[in-house]
Design a protein that fits this description.
By secondary structure, this protein is α/β, with parallel strands linked by helices. The protein has 2 domains: 3-139, Rossmann fold, CATH 3.40.50.2300; 157-252, LytTr DNA-binding domain (OB fold (Dihydrolipoamide Acetyltransferase, E2P), Beta Barrel), CATH 2.40.50.1020. It is built from 8 helices and 15 strands. The chain has helices spanning 12-22, 37-47, 63-68, 86-89, 106-121, 129-139, 188-192, 239-252; strands at 3-8, 28-34, 51-55, 77-82, 98-101, 146-151, 154-159, 165-169, 172-177, 180-185, 200-204, 207-210, 214-221, 224-229, 234-237. The strands form 4 sheets. Strands 2-1-3-4-5 form a 5-stranded parallel sheet, with helices on both faces. It has a 5-stranded antiparallel sheet with strand order 10-9-8-12-11. Strand 11 (200-204) and strand 12 (207-210) form a beta hairpin. The longest helix has 16 residues, at 106-121. The protein is elongated.
Length: 259
């Protein structure tokens, strides 16, 4: 009997990659695919697969929130697919079946899948491993370390620390990196919840800046200032965000009061 697999990833290229790698495993059947977290909950609940390749970062709800939405007694084996560095995932290596860090090769993929197959072959498998994982995650907040940028037929990875600023553009956000910029799908508020708040601070309802890139603060209008970044880009600091911004500067020790 074939093992039933579900693929969950908001990137079509990422789903294509997993589907292509599964072709050589003739004992595996792909029963469905999900493009986002909400679809994943419905599909996993409906199909009850043996194994799920689950993306961690998605625009609506992330992979961990997907798991929280499922019945803990019927959660399948999960192989996480993520853009996190390996260091950020060490804490739950002992709970998850396995994880794949993008970009991954055929050998690493096969190792993860074979690990999951071995787990399924063990009778009376401990079904609490993901519950323990979720408990760890609730006590240890992890932040996005890299952004996955779709560029034609390839996916480019941008380190979060290299991003100068992030701006809202409708249903997308624009990452400004030096002289380049990249559009990714999602809202500014959703992205803000995934990045390090000690590094990225909102200065306007539509703008977040990397505090390590702030060069100076200039008077702009009554109650408003301009935040000038090291590369020369300027962003308005609105009244509603000034107090939090100044607190972040003070705590980080990045700028001193010249007055």
């Amino acid at each position: 009997m074939n093992l039933r697999v579900v693929i969950v990833d908001d990137e079509p290229l990422a789903r294509d990659r997993i589907r292509e790698l599964l072709k050589s495993h003739h004992d595996v059947e792909i029963v469905s695919e999900a493009r986002n977290g909400h679809e994943a909950v419905e599909i996993i609940t409906q199909h009850r697969p043996d194994i799920v390749f689950l993306d961690v970062q998605m625009p609506d709800i992330n992979g961990f929130e997907v798991l929280k939405s499922l019945d803990s007694n019927t959660i399948p084996l999960i192989i996480f697919v993520t853009a996190f560095d390996q260091h950020a995932l060490r804490a739950f290596e002992f709970h998850a079946v396995d994880y794949l860090t993008k970009p991954f090769d055929r050998e690493r993929f096969g190792k993860a899948l074979n690990h999951a197959k071995a787990q399924l072959a063990v009778k009376n498998r401990d079904a609490t491993y993901l519950v323990n994982l979720l408990e760890d995650l609730s006590s240890r907040k992890r932040f996005l370390e890299r952004f996955a940028i779709k560029n034609g037929e390839t996916i480019q990875y941008i380190r979060a620390s290299d991003v100068d600023s992030i701006e809202a553009e409708g249903n997308y956000v624009r990452l400004n990196v030096a002289s380049s910029s990249y559009l990714i799908r999602g809202t500014l508020s959703n992205l803000e919840s995934q990045i390090d708040p000690t590094l990225f601070v909102r200065v306007h309802r539509s703008t977040i800046v990397n505090m390590n890139r702030v060069r100076e603060l200039q008077t702009w209008a009554p109650g408003e200032y301009r935040v000038v970044l090291q590369g020369g880009a300027c962003h308005i600091l609105s009244r509603s965000h000034r107090e939090h911004f100044e607190s972040a500067i003070t705590q980080g020790g990045r700028m001193k009061d010249e007055g």
